[in-house]
Amino acid sequence: MRKLALLIFAAIILIAPAALTAQPDWKARVADTMPLMGHRNWILIVDSAYPLQSSPGVETIDTNSSQLDVLRYVLGSINSSIHVRPLIYMDRELPFVGDDDAPGVSRYREEIQKILADYTIEQMLHERVINQIDETSKEFHVLVLKTTMTIPYSSVFIRLDCKYWSADAEKRMRQRMH
Predict the structure, then answer these.
(1) For 13-65, how does the pLDDT look when each residue is reduced to its tens digit (9 = 90+)?
(2) Helix 26-33 crosses helix 67-79 at what angle (to 10 degrees)?
(3) pTM to 2 decimals?
(4) Beta-bridge mates of residue 130
(5) What does the alpha-carbon distance between residue 87 and residue 147 come to, in Å, rounded to a whole number?
(6) What is the distance between the alpha carbons of residues 98 and 39, in angstroms, rounded to a whole number?
(7) In which domain, by residue range, is 57 found?
(8) 142 has which bridge partners?
(9) Could you give the number of structural domains in the chain?
(10) 58 lies in some domain
């Protein structure tokens, strides 16, 4: 009986670290996924209340990390790729959220402006962004990275575009085709 108890205890000690690391490593997942992603794919860095979507094209990972840290990492990963560049979307509602209803929102807006200073940010109503992502996920992969953020309308939606082929180049090519 004592031998069995020791054996069970040893098994628990050996299995416990694996159970603690069973949550997917979001950085590794971003690194593994980035070479496969292309224009029309999305990466979402979302607040903790963002809903789990059921579309088969949506992959959701709980990062258990701060939103700003996740955003910095994802932008670094995108910017170091040879094939994609980020198009940034944020909720149009965010500028109207007050500190009285969401403590820390003013500071968050300052921080996000610093991080995204080199990017054009398109503001879109939250429902419209969600609908666009829902439509996209029917054909293309969407990676959702949930964070510990607790400020509403703070999610950053990144649509990937081709880094080596611009919209102007596409337009010129289409004109030559006619």
Answers:
(1) 444 443 333 346 999 999 999 999 999 999 999 999 999 988 889 999 999 99
(2) 20
(3) 0.84
(4) none
(5) 20
(6) 35
(7) 26-177
(8) 42, 58
(9) 1
(10) yes
Is position 71 within any domain?
yes
Which CATH number do you get for residue 97? 3.40.1650.10
Residue with tokens 């607790």: 150
Label each residue of the chain as H, E or C.
Answer: CHHHHHHHHHHHHHHHHHHHCCCCCHHHHHHHHHHHCCCCCEEEEECCCCCCCCCCCEEEEECCCCHHHHHHHHHHHHHCCCCEEEEEEEECCHHHCCCCCCCCHHHHHHHHHHHCCCCCEEEECHHHHHHHHHHHCCCCCEEEEECCCCCCCCCEEEEEEECCCCHHHHHHHHHHHC
Looking up tokens 């969407």, which residue turns up?
Answer: 142
Terminal Cα-to-Cα distance of the chain (whole angstroms): 84
Q: pLDDT tens for residues 63-90?
A: 999 999 999 999 999 999 999 999 999 9
Q: Residue 64 region, left (φ>0) first, then alpha (ψ -120 to 50), else beta?
A: left
Length of the chain, please?
Answer: 178
